[in-house]
Fold:
Amino acid sequence: MRIGEIAALVGVTSRAVRHYHHIGLLPEPARQANGYRAYTVRDAVLLARIRRLSEIGLSLDEVRDVLADDAGRELAEVLGELDADLARQEREIHERRPVRAVLAPPPHTAPARDSPAHPAVWAPPPATTSPAAAKDREHLSLLDAAGDGAGAELLAALRPLAEAPGVLVLYERLDELAGAGVDDPRIAPLAAELVAAVPDEVLAMIPEGEPSTTGLGRVLLDDYPPAQRAVVRRVMEALAERVRGRNA
Structure:
């Protein structure tokens, strides 16, 4: 990702990203041969962390202290705390809405609509040591940071599926492909089983045109090594085909 892409993905400005670099809050990423910064998903997660901490009222110096503490912790623990921040914000919003409704009731023609996200979205990480499962949780947190209402619906649908025991077994098989080549014979069968694991009720939550292997989808695919990327690409393409068939 370039600076404009990571900024748009997380919901900040390119100027803010440059400022975070300037004050040492966000480490400079590696640069490509043409001199452009090359950001990864992990850079996006860190930027989302900075954004969330700022949104809850911490000064940039306080954010720096929190990130310094994060440096010695596992990513899953950091993401768990980010989830807790989001859950707290969600609770505060729901607590404020009844007060707002009393002060200014919405028109009967436009009833208020609760967020499609639900408490299960913020459940603790599943009991697994699978790196692939951890990566998916990281990606789902990034989707929440970058998504709109439709993204929240997709997040709410995919999070419980990503933590289902049967799917965790498939994640472990995906882990085994970490160092494999793109011609590995395990790729196609695993992709087919992952696609089959997505029930129709979850498929119904996926918007038209998703999952896409462009835009954010391309960024997420680039975060996988070759054989795993081949599996995930097959899954995304097959699910997109199922979505098109659902609406045909």
In short: The CA atoms of residues 194 and 235 lie 7 Å apart. The chain has a mean pLDDT of 76. The two ends are 34 Å apart (CA to CA).
